Write a sequence for this structure.
């Protein structure tokens, strides 16, 4: 993010941070372990962003960068319904479903938050860390 001139970062989330219920079968547990592992880096980055924004000194160049950063997230409830094995699905119909779902989620995000881009964050990294969603 430091090498980017934009003050807006848009996270396109493909794995849910939280899922309702408790995984019970070996497949469900394995799927969730894979999601948790994949999300570990994301959560670490969000924690770093939240910390840097909290302690940013607007008087120095690095602090000003973090202090004005705006964070957004595009997510789809449909993605939470898909299991880990869907990541191995390369069938054309499934890929076009993902494309269409992504376009719909992006359209919904822009409808709700398009006016916020360039003005304010629509995602609080700290809230994601505390509650799994924002």
């Amino acid at each position: 993010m430091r090498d980017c001139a934009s003050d807006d970062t848009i996270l396109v989330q493909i794995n849910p941070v939280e899922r309702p219920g408790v995984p019970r079968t070996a497949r469900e547990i394995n799927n969730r372990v894979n999601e948790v592992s994949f999300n570990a880096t994301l959560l670490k980055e969000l924690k770093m962003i939240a910390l840097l924004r909290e302690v940013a000194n607007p008087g120095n160049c690095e602090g000003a960068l973090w202090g004005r950063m705006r964070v957004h997230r595009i997510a789809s409830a449909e993605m939470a319904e898909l299991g880990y094995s869907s990541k191995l699905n390369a069938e054309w119909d499934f890929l076009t479903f993902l494309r269409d779902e992504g376009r719909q989620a992006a359209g919904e995000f822009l409808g709700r938050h398009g006016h916020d881009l360039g003005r304010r964050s629509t995602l609080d990294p700290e809230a994601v860390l505390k509650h799994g969603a924002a």
Helices lie at 26-55, 61-67, 77-81, 92-113, 125-131. The chain has a mean pLDDT of 82.
